[in-house]
Amino acid sequence: MLRTSSMNRSFISAQNAFFLSFSKCTHRKLSTALFWNASRLDYDEKLDFSSWKEVCDNVVLHRSDKVSTEEMISLAQDHHPTVIIAKEITVPTDVIQRLPDSVRLACEAGTGYNNWPLQATRQREKDLCNKPTYSTEAVAHMAITYLMNLSES
């Protein structure tokens, strides 16, 4: 799997821009942003999450690659986040059903929605977003690299 810091920084800055716009429109900060598995975004520990303080009163970074169902529920119930951010983890329906009412938005820190139970998310009236252009340029570069390597064989 191709993962670079620049792709993750792209996600962080795009999401910050979105939340900054939101907070300016509503004239208030979000209460809490919860990163269920922050180490998947910050695998080299070089991401600066401090800019989230512009849009959130509190940022909770659960630094783990893997998060159990019970940990997801516990973290959400303990911190009452407005926003939950996850990367490449499967979120079970049970988790969505047990989220506190404070959660208004769930974010996949990448492309696709295949890790989220869409029907349960809709039923709980939670918004869900992703980063559709996440790593587009890197994937294109990798595809060209593979083509060039294969053409030399």
Task: Describe the protein.
The protein is of the alpha/beta class and 153 residues long. 42% of the residues lie in helices and 15% in strands. It is built from six helices and five strands, in the order αβαβαβαβαβα. The protein has helices at residues 5-26, 38-41, 69-79, 93-97, 118-123, 136-152, and strands spanning 30-35, 56-61, 83-86, 105-108, 127-129. Strands 2-1-3-4-5 form a five-stranded parallel β-sheet. The two termini are 23 Å apart. Mean pLDDT is 81; it is low at 1-7.
Low-confidence parts: 1-7
Q: Using the alpha-carbon principal axes, give the shape.
A: globular
Number of E-type strands: 5
N/C terminus separation: 23 Å
Rg over C-alpha atoms, rounded to the nearest angstrom: 17 Å
Please give the largest β-sheet.
5 strands, parallel
Short description:
With 153 residues, this protein is α/β, with parallel strands linked by helices. It has helices at residues 5-26, 38-41, 69-79, 93-97, 118-123, 136-152; strands at 30-35, 56-61, 83-86, 105-108, 127-129.
SSE layout and pairing:
Elements: H1 5-26, E1 30-35, H2 38-41, E2 56-61, H3 69-79, E3 83-86, H4 93-97, E4 105-108, H5 118-123, E5 127-129, H6 136-152
Parallel strand pairs: 1-2, 1-3, 3-4, 4-5
